[in-house]
Design goal:
- The complex is a heterodimer of chains A (570) and B (287).
- Chain A is α/β, with parallel strands linked by helices and 570 residues long.
- Chain A folds into four domains: 2-177, 3-Layer(aba) Sandwich (Pyruvate-ferredoxin Oxidoreductase, domain 3), CATH 3.40.920; 195-368, 3-Layer(aba) Sandwich (Rossmann fold), CATH 3.40.50; 385-455, no CATH class; 460-569, Rossmann fold, CATH 3.40.50.920.
- Helices cover 39% and strands 20% of the residues of chain A.
- Chain A contains 21 helices and 21 strands.
- In chain A, the strands form three sheets. An eight-stranded mixed sheet of chain A has the order 6-5-4-1-3-2-14-7.
- In chain A, strand 2 (32-38) and strand 3 form a beta hairpin.
- In chain A, helix 4 (111-117) crosses helix 7, helix 8 packs parallel to helix 14 (332-349) and helix 11 packs parallel to helix 12 (268-284).
- By secondary structure, chain B is of the alpha/beta class.
- Chain B has one domain (3-261): 3-Layer(aba) Sandwich (Rossmann fold).
- Chain B is 32% helix and 16% strand.
- Chain B is built from nine helices and eight strands.
- Chain B has helices at 19-34, 69-79, 91-97, 99-108, 153-159, 173-185, 207-213, 226-233, 272-284; strands spanning 41-45, 60-63, 84-90, 112-118, 164-169, 190-195, 214-216, 240-247.
- An eight-stranded mixed sheet of chain B has the order 2-1-3-4-6-5-8-7, with helices on both faces.
- In chain B, helix 6 (173-185) links the parallel strand 5 (164-169) and strand 6 (190-195).
- In chain B, helix 3 (91-97) crosses helix 4 (99-108) and helix 5 runs antiparallel to helix 8.
- Chain B is globular.
- Chain B starts with 18 loop residues before the first helix and ends with a helix.
- The chains are: A alpha/beta (570), B alpha/beta (287).
- At the A-B interface, strand 7, helix 8, helix 10, helix 11 and helix 12 of A face strand 2, helix 2, helix 4 and helix 9 of B.
Chain lengths: 570, 287
């Protein structure tokens, strides 16, 4: 089984509430669920949608044909009618849309009347619709009641009861009146977790011991701050909304210098302001993790849409030459793991590390069976204060074989900890000496980079072991590329997905360059206009791709469209 | 080591006769008088002649970027609020490049002590106008004279209800030392604007110029009276008041954060077992 449903409506109608509740119910029943959202830069009105796909096998991307369209606004009908399968259903409330539609696909359900009959306000039409969808799909309501209890925990008993009644009435109505509802839920499995991209970055940060997050709100990065902020008390961490992004990164660097694992997050425009701070982190060898949730630019661009357009920006941001690491997770599982790894690498080498997502990944939710907490690199890289106290003198930037100096914490040792954005000596004081300058560059850059390269994991390689065609991707396109490649069922095709982007993985454990050289066609799929990753790959390995599939209209790749493109080229 | 010797830092690279030397001496004496060991406090600075200040004091030091001392200092204070955190910068650094951070540091009332070496001119870049340069001052970059109005940092701070607002003068040693000590002991955000003659580049606001104008704010002034404080802050010209202009008892930002009520944030680092248990709970929220 593999069903897709879309909920369309205006901002402020609560379509996200319906979508989230349904997705959770499906997870409770043990289904694999994938959700994604498309919204506009407004709080009320406009047209947004929330799409849910559920299946009894793993799924990784949205599919185009819809089984159910729930239309909460008039715009949903012309915008999405063509996506509905011939035998699919378009559920709507003629009183809400002020229009009736004829045809076998249409099912008029009085969501508003069902809601108001319970004595509730019109907004409870959401809950009636949620119940109706579950009825159409043949699911029971029990998990929904649990979810409503949590969702409405701040409301009074009467409101909770009205919502319960509305769900029951919506469910009954759909069961009774949906003539063509022939959905057959497969047997249920073990309940799954539903994890979103922003939450995954937030959870990964917590799991790595992040205790300080400072940021300025900016779509699509704000979800990380919201997730961490809601847990600040429980975890004993500080989440501070800074006056601007410049302050955000500098605050995080201050906290990090003082011994606390710190992070900031933003999108392209905000990151533009942070750039001097990236350079500062490098010069002062202060660890920091930067979450960069991309959206289409230049400038304000499309604030709520998606793009992978800032790879080069992250790669080259900051004046001067210094090492950095860039991760770009392809799904929430990778987002958790790589955000935790970002802290680990950042602390171990005292460098800035990026976690790059985009609106698409930030706002998608995937199901996971579990998250292994045992494999997290829970290790403190700060030097023990007693050890530093035993030294005659402490130098924050002491030369060592690895280029990494003992990480002393100010106020915790009897020695003073000194660092500077100017070029400095081992003790951290300003110098202009040419010999010392060269040595410091070599320490910060070459010595560290040698070991950093060894930390980078090889790309994901799936499909034919000796492929004629290789589909290359990075970051958030992982799921859609994998679905497309798998559904081609071509024995001569493989995919190569990079989530650890920079430095590019070494070739010792897996020589992917050899695979690319041997293939006839190498096609790089990117959500940008200039094929930035393909250019990086060429610059670093000399390996040029033979073809590119690029999308830069602010929307994510859709499986069917990508499949068509791939079939046309391979 | 005894006395101010324990704060001996690098050899200053300032011009001979610079007002900064007097500030450095008063600062060290204030530290010694308060009995603050070098490793117990941290100075954060930006860029400018004043930005070099922490190198000349033996102390924990973060000499960061131009204009950004306050956000870095805020981060340090939040990570370890038991440490005395001082920010130092010039008038260009704090009132120009870092102006937005100053507004918000005052709003937060974060317990950082800010000392501005205000020489009304850019020193490091050799003589351009600063936000506190007086209107009409001619420089190489402002040949028509400064057209913008002169920033009044004291009036601005009072208007923003800053926790502690004071003005000192590099040429009045004992008075300055006492002001620095008062700022150290204030719980919330403190700003001390220190008039500092630039002997190389500012030929208007000289020792002689300031010497004729500054006067001590007397005991008759009530620094808790905001309206009177504002009036005092507006005085500039023939008579320039030095001393504590305004102070209030707004609680500091860090004192209002429950997560650091029991211990500084940095003391909670590395508690992996505790963390694992919380993570297991957060995972359940995904179900």
């Amino acid at each position: 089984m593999d069903y897709s449903l879309k909920i369309g409506g205006e901002a402020g109608q609560g379509i996200q509430t319906i979508g989230d509740a349904l997705a959770k119910v499906f997870c409770r029943f043990g289904y694999h669920v994938f959700t994604n959202q498309d919204y506009e830069s407004r709080i009320r009105g406009g047209h947004n949608f929330y799409q849910i796909r559920l299946s009894d096998r793993p799924i990784r991307a949205p599919r185009r044909p819809l089984d159910i369209l729930l239309a909460f606004d008039r715009e949903s009908i012309p915008a999405h009618r063509a996506e509905v399968r011939e035998e699919g259903i378009i559920a709507y409330d003629s009183s809400l849309l002020k229009e009736s539609f004829a045809g076998p696909q249409f099912l008029d359900i009085p969501f508003v009347k069902i809601a108001t009959d319970t004595g509730a306000s019109r907004i409870v039409a959401n809950t009636a619709a949620t119940g109706a969808i579950l009825g159409m799909l043949g699911f029971s309501l029990d998990p929904l009641f649990d979810i409503l209890t949590v969702l409405l925990k701040r409301k009074d008993d009467r409101t909770r009861e009205q919502n319960r009644l509305a769900a029951v009435a919506g469910h009954e109505y759909a069961v009774k009146n949906c003539g063509r509802c022939s959905f057959s839920p497969a047997s249920t499995g073990v309940p799954k977790m539903l994890v979103g991209g922003s939450e995954a970055v937030g959870f990964g940060a917590l799991a790595a011991g992040c205790m300080f997050y400072s940021a300025y709100p900016m779509t699509p990065s704000t979800g990380i701050m919201t997730y961490l902020g809601a847990r600040a008390k429980e975890y004993g961490i500080i989440v501070e909304q800074a006056e601007d992004e410049i302050a955000a990164i500098n605050m995080a660097l201050g906290a990090s210098f003082a011994g606390v694992r710190s992070m900031t997050g933003t999108s392209g425009g905000g990151f533009a302001l942070m750039v001097e701070g990236v350079s500062l982190a490098a010069m002062t060898e202060t660890p920091i993790v930067i979450a960069l949730a991309q959206r289409p630019g230049p400038a304000t661009g499309l604030p709520t849409k998606t793009e992978q357009g800032d790879l080069f920006f992250a790669l080259y941001a900051g004046h001067g030459e210094f090492p950095r690491v860039i991760f770009a997770p392809g799904n929430p599982e990778q987002a958790i793991r790589l955000t935790a790894k970002a802290f680990h690498i950042s602390q171990k080498y005292q460098i800035p590390v990026f976690v790059m997502t985009d609106q698409y990944l930030a706002d998608t939710q995937w199901t996971l069976d579990s998250v292994a907490l045992d494999n997290l690199p829970m290790k403190d890289y700060r030097t023990d204060a007693a050890e530093i106290d035993r030294l005659d003198a402490y130098a924050r930037h002491a030369f060592t074989d690895s280029g990494v100096s003992p990480f002393g914490i100010p106020g915790k040792t009897k020695h003073v900890v000194v660092t500077d954005s100017d070029e400095h000596n081992e003790a951290g004081h300003i110098i202009e000496d040419k010999g010392l300058r060269s040595k410091m560059v070599e320490k910060r850059l070459f010595l560290k980079l040698e070991n950093i390269r060894k930390e980078i994991a090889p790309p994901v390689f799936l499909g034919s072991a000796a492929p004629e065609t290789v589909i290359i991707s990075w970051g958030s396109t992982y799921g859609v590329v994998r679905e497309a490649v798998e559904s081609m069922g071509d024995k001569k095709i493989a995919m190569l997905h990079f989530s650890e982007i920079y430095p590019l993985p070494g070739l010792q454990s897996f020589d992917y360059v050899e695979v690319l050289k041997k293939a006839e066609r190498t096609i790089c799929v990117e959500n940008n206009a200039t094929g930035q990753f393909a250019r990086l790959l060429k610059a670093e390995t000399g390996c040029a791709v033979t073809d590119r599939i690029l999308r830069y209209d602010g929307r994510p790749f859709l499986m069917e469209e990508l499949l068509e493109e791939l079939r046309g080229r391979s | 080591m005894e006395g101010v010797e324990k704060y001996l830092g690098e050899v200053p690279a300032w011009c001979p006769g610079c007002g900064n030397f007097a500030i450095l001496r008063a600062f060290k004496e204030a530290l010694d008088a308060e009995g603050i060991e070098p490793y117990r406090f941290c100075i954060v600075s930006g860029i400018g002649q004043a930005g070099k200040f922490p190198h000349y004091v033996r102390c924990n030091t973060f000499n960061g970027l131009h204009g950004r001392a306050l956000p870095v200092a805020t981060g340090i204070k939040l990570a370890n609020h038991e440490m005395l955190v001082v920010a130092v910068g010039g008038d260009g650094d704090m009132y120009g490049e870092g102006g937005n951070h100053l507004l918000h540091a005052i709003r937060r009332n974060i317990g950082v002590k800010l000392f501005v070496h205000d020489n009304q001119i850019y020193g490091l870049t050799k003589g351009q106008a600063s936000p506190t340069s007086m209107e009409g001052m001619v420089t190489k970059n402002q040949p028509l004279g400064v057209l913008s109005g002169q920033l009044n940092p004291m009036a601005m701070a009072v208007a923003l209800d800053c926790g502690f607002v004071a003005r000192g003068y590099a040429g009045d040693h004992e008075h300055l030392k006492a002001l620095i000590r008062s700022a150290f002991n204030h719980k919330g955000f403190s700003i001390v604007d220190i008039l500092q003659p630039c002997v190389s580049l500012n030929k208007v606001n000289t020792y002689e110029w300031y010497g004729k104008r500054v006067y001590h704010i007397g005991d008759d002034h009530d620094p808790s009276d905001r309206i009177k404080a504002f009036a005092r802050a507006l005085e500039w010209g023939d008579r320039i008041p030095i001393g504590i202009i305004y102070r209030n008892d707004r609680p500091s930002f860090e004192s209002r954060l429950p997560v650091i009520a029991a211990r500084p944030l940095v003391d909670g680092v590395g508690k992996w077992q505790e963390l694992r248990e919380k993570l297991a709970g957060s995972l359940n929220e995904f179900r």
